[in-house]
Amino acid sequence: MGSAKKTDSTSRKARIEEMRRAERSRERRNRTLTIAASVIVVAGLVAGGAYLIDSQSGKDGASSDGKQASGKFVTGKDGVRKWDGKLTQNHVTKTVDYPMEPPVGGDHNAVWMNCNGDVYDKAVKNVNAVHSLEHGAVWVTYSSKASEADVKALSEKVKKTPYTLMSPVEDQKDPIMLSAWGHQRTVKSASDPDVGTFFETYVQGKQTPEPGAACTNGLAQ
């Protein structure tokens, strides 16, 4: 059994390292494309700025409808709550009224929160964090009811794990919660074995709508 666990751990490390190499390659390619694209974007903005503003204003009004994510959580035998319903993936510019807190999916901002083991001391915007979940990240959240020791221990784990992020969410129903796209669970403490299980299952897990998408070059506090 010990050999199997070691093999799984080695395989997981290799998979994460491969994701890191792929992301670095995408970053180099994106920088080249960005330089060329920026010229086109600036020209377009100068030529049609007024039109873009008017059309975007109309779009924002429609995209702020919180009813886009409908459904309910269904709790499995393992304690993980799975969202039973539709989770839309539109890019919007206004705040989304999510039917759960923290949200596990739905419309979101076009810019993701950096989630390459990023730990935020202040609350982040849901619309940005949800985009990180779409990329396959696990979001660790905690309220003021969580102990300082647990927050510190979880921070250390997140910092060592690509495709994760952590931030405070005061309005959540439990002191410590873990979220992935369409999935969520409560854990008792940082030492709860369910923390490791959730990470193993949902960091770039099968639920990921956009596996391998970037978790860097996004938004940071």
Nutshell version of this structure?
The chain has 221 residues and is α/β, with parallel strands linked by helices.
In percent, how much strand structure appears in the residues?
15-25%
Structural class: alpha/beta
Rounded to the nearest angstrom, the distance between the terminal CA atoms is: 42 Å
Oligomer: single chain
Strand tally is 7
- Report Rg: 19 Å
Mean pLDDT: 83
Order of helices and strands: HEEEHEHEEEH
Portion of residues within helices: 40-55%
The number of distinct helices, counting runs of at least 4 residues, comes to 4
Shape: globular
Low-pLDDT windows of residues: 39-67
Main sheet summary: 7 strands, mixed
Spatial ordering of strands, largest sheet: 1-2-7-6-4-5-3
Keywords: Membrane, Transmembrane, Transmembrane helix
Pfam families: DUF3105 (PF11303)
Organism: Streptomyces fructofermentans
Protein name: Membrane protein
Describe this protein's structure.
The chain is an alpha/beta fold. It has a domain at 66-202. 42% of the residues lie in helices and 16% in strands. It has four helices and seven strands, in the order H-E-E-E-H-E-H-E-E-E-H. The protein has helices spanning 2-63, 126-134, 148-159, 193-202, and strands at 70-75, 81-86, 116-119, 138-142, 164-168, 176-180, 183-186. It has a seven-stranded mixed beta sheet with strand order 1-2-7-6-4-5-3. A hairpin with a 2-residue loop joins strand 6 (176-180) and strand 7. The termini are far apart. 31% of the residues are buried. Residues 39-67 have low confidence and may be disordered.
